[in-house]
Specification:
mainly alpha, 4 helices
């Protein structure tokens, strides 16, 4: 199913970006000990947990993979994919700002 594949790809890229951002922000926190870098690190870890759970549901959970592939209406898929893509855009911007 196309929507499930798009969601899987977007979520996978989100996970990879969040791993990189968490690494950078935790290193910055260790070096500077600022609340700002701690806040960014906690934010990234929580968002990473959410995306890792979504990826698990989309790829590995036997019942839910089947349900997402066959039982979710297209309107709901479009909404979920739109959220994943908006998050991807935000994370790409954060990555650009962080690594610039």
């Amino acid at each position: 199913m196309l929507w499930l594949d798009i969601a899987r790809v977007a979520t996978t890229v989100n996970v990879l970006l969040l791993v990189g951002l968490t690494y950078v922000w935790l290193n910055n926190y260790r070096q500077f000990r600022s609340k700002h870098t701690l806040g960014l690190s906690v934010f990234a870890l929580l968002l990473l947990a959410e995306n890792a759970l979504a990826l698990y549901v989309y790829l590995l959970h036997a019942r839910l993979v089947h349900w997402f592939a066959t039982g979710v209406p297209p309107l709901a898929w479009r909404a979920m994919v739109a959220l994943h893509l908006l998050e991807l855009g935000a994370l790409l911007f954060l990555a650009w700002v962080t690594w610039d």
